[in-house]
């Protein structure tokens, strides 16, 4: 699962993502024309909502990047030569990956971040607020500060990134009660990326208000890998490192052993294992779970780790069993790598429902002894962008469909819980995808 976002945020300014020098209302800046986000296909928390619950389901803060993704590269760029990419997409990145994934799963998401007052910042603000329905009331525009940018080159199932940006200027109001991260609004959950040696003061405040804290971690550039450096871990409900990070912090040589060791420090330890799937241990009950990954052809793994965390948070807040949460998180991540880009590759419920319909239809036809034809292309909604039809792009639900009857049977058994939560699969996708440019000039 992609960990690029955690590393970028830690190195640049996740700690100051909300600390703009001053605030400029976005109402003063006419946003580009684009389709506004409609209501989510379903509310996964409908069964657990009650009067008096917080309006915000998930709060998060960090750095928003503009991601520019080059695709269709046959090999890595070679020194001293020019490489041409067959495709290109742009989308909000950084913490926007997680925020978008959460919002597309129907969670009321609040993001506190600094935005540059350049066209990149305007595009990212509009894409998140209008395009995805993310609450940016705690975000602000920083005059004279340009948006951080990452250029990602995808090839051979991997990617290479080059980033540039400057830390947002500090604000005198950074830690008062009105501005995050002093104390964020009441919420069911908060998401953070732990950085070794750095303490986020808002975590204790949020946990004290009853928010459940979910955390991942970036690469430890110091090489210490000392769990004592993870300030804030004591406030966490769940800790979700990848296998390499988990093993280094626990001095173990097995992801499963690392999960058990981490569960001694946090209520729930989840370790992602890439192509092997994910495992988890609940330190409160002793329950453990492990699920394999869904085999797919990766086009761009950027942001897959963030989508995984968003899926796991969704299942946790909805009260699903541990195995179902892991399975759902793995599915959302698998669907995301079938699209280019980070934030705008995240699936919504319609895409998940279409995939589930593919699995059920495949198993039913195979069980009846009939020949199983190739899955037909699914309908494309009006908000699907040009990047969705770049060379090599494909519908994620079709691309992740089972290849054999035996695979379909395994998936049908593992994901049977989806029958109780999914909408019908007959509505086309309305999700925005990564676009080749941030906009065109409108006629005068």
Protein model, in words:
By secondary structure, this protein is α/β, with parallel strands linked by helices. It is about 25% helix and about 20% strand. The protein has helices spanning about 5-10, 95-105, 120-130, 200-210, 245-250, 255-260, 305-320, 320-335, 350-365, 395-400, 405-415; strands at about 55-60, 65-70, 85-95, 110, 115, 140, 150-155, 160-165, 185-195, 210-215, 235-240, 270, 280, 290. An eight-stranded mixed β-sheet has the order 4-1-9-10-11-12-13-14, with helices on both faces. A four-stranded mixed β-sheet has the order 3-2-7-8. The longest helix has 19 residues, at about 350-365. The model is unreliable at about 1-35, about 175-180 and about 370-395 (pLDDT under 50).
Summarize this entry quickly:
This protein has 444 residues and is of the alpha/beta class. It has eleven helices and 14 strands.
Would you report the number of β strands?
Answer: 14
Largest sheet strand order? 4-1-9-10-11-12-13-14
Kindly state the mean pLDDT as a whole number? 81
Low-pLDDT residue spans: 1-35, 175-179, 369-394
| Terminal Cα span | 45 Å
Instruction: Give the amount of beta strand, in percent.
Output: 15-25%
The main pleated sheet reads as: 8 strands, mixed
User: What structural class do the secondary elements suggest?
Assistant: alpha/beta
Oligomer category: single chain
